Amino acid sequence: MNPHFTDKYWLDIVDKIAQASTCRVKLGCVLVQNNNIVGVGYTGSITGDAHCEDVGCLFVDNHGVHGSESTGKSCVRTVHAEMNALLKCEKRGSEQNGWITCYSTYSPCLSCAKLLLQKGVRTFIYEKHYHDINRDAYLHELVHKSSGICVTFMHIQARKKHGDEIMCDTCCETGHYDALCDNKWAFDDNVWFDKVLNRWACFNCYLK
Question: pTM above the 0.90 mark?
Answer without folding.
Answer: no
